[in-house]
Amino acid sequence: MKIKAINGFKDILPDEVHRWQRIEACARDIFQRFGLREIRLPILEKTELFARSIGETTDIVEKEMYTFPDKGITMRPEATASLLRAFIEHSLHLQRPVQRLFTIGPMFRHERPQKGRLRQFHQIDAEIIGAQEPQVDAELMAMGQMLLTELGLTASLEINSLGCPDCRPDFREKLVRYLEEKEEGLCEDCRRRRTTNPLRVLDCKKATCRALVQNAPSILDSLCAPCREHFQAVQKNLDLLGVTYKLNRFMVRGLDYYTRTTFEFIASGLGAQSAVGAGGRYDGLIHQLGGPGLPGIGFAMGMERLVLLMESTDSEQQALDREIDIFAAALGQEAMEFATPLIHALRKLSVRAAMDYSGRSLKAQMKQAGRLNAAYTLIIGEQELAEKKAILRNMDTQEQTSFSLEGDTKELAGILAKTCMETARSES
Ligand code: ATP
Ligand code: MG
Predict the structure, then answer these.
(1) Ligand with an atom nearest the CA of residue 300
(2) Distance 367 CA to ligand 1 centre (A)
(3) Are residues 103 and 250 located together in one domain of the fold?
(4) Is the pLDDT at 12 greater than 90, yes or no?
(5) Ligand 1: distance of its center to the CA of 115 in Å?
(6) Could you tell me the pTM of the whole model?
């Protein structure tokens, strides 16, 4: 019986991994420009943390968490709750008044797997804690936009405000009243949400529900004065930064902790899973989790969706990656014993070097060098060894030169390393 990976859990194979590395490197680079520092967090947390932050009546907590009930622990479905738990636990606000943090890693949700939706997926998560100014909201969104742009991707930014505990209850009531009249036409989920989590109805993906809420009251009309001013200032600052955006009054987000600004980066070409990233402000959450009364804002990008987008926009065939600088094709026992320490010495000099120990034919070894896209192959047979002259073949130009084997391993490695470095430099 063959054992396969669990449904919704995916291997990231060596041929795909360069995209993941590129995304991570790009995120680290850009986030640093914005003053964010990395934090690494555990994957398991107490179940209560998610129930209290994300919300008992959200889809995530109600039905999507991987929980070990006997142990009271859960595999994190998102990063913000864990990050804030760590922030509070270590009193990070005492170190600096505004903490700018990011984390990268796997998240777990028991959802129906499909394109761009997995049960183990990966997020890049950025959070700014301790600042309530609308400039920060705009700055964070601009940072997300910069990441997408530098990855060569296009996504549109949609924004909304969810108000605050002062103005949202009013809106909620208005909405409940509106939905009461429309109950008949709502899907089963939304009939339940209508009382437990009515704002979520606005966000339902079903066409019938979408049509029904078109004339629902808009939260943007219900904002209290401070929330309205904040949201206006966010828009002004997005303009200042040259970030284009669209208002979307139906955007609600599936986590209860959001206040004021919420946003999503929407890409075309991902089908139903069109959100590559999403986030918002959570001004009451840190206090709610037992920490100081500090505001915060953050977003998470879905790495699987970024990868899908990169694949769909990589128009020209990716140039074959150079995996190896030099491959030693050694023929016979003696040549092999000559080449083995030479390869090791090259690796010490930061050269990507390889050889084959199986005693295959020259033809087979050349094929192997080609598969690795080696820049050079050093061919050493019995005759070459006797004459102290190997053949150095440039695999791109197919030009062959004689390479003197006079000198010790270290000297020979030094000369070869120099050749390889020069070639690598001229290529980049
Ligand atoms: P969706 O609308 O796809 O359900 P969400 O609102 O649940 O997303 P968040 O919890 O805000 O998403 O997570 C932020 C980002 O993480 C999403 O925009 C998406 O790119 C990614 N993401 C969320 N859930 C998954 C999943 N199951 N598989 C892959 N990526 C996901
Ligand atoms: Mg979801």
Answers:
(1) 1
(2) 43
(3) yes
(4) yes
(5) 12
(6) 0.91
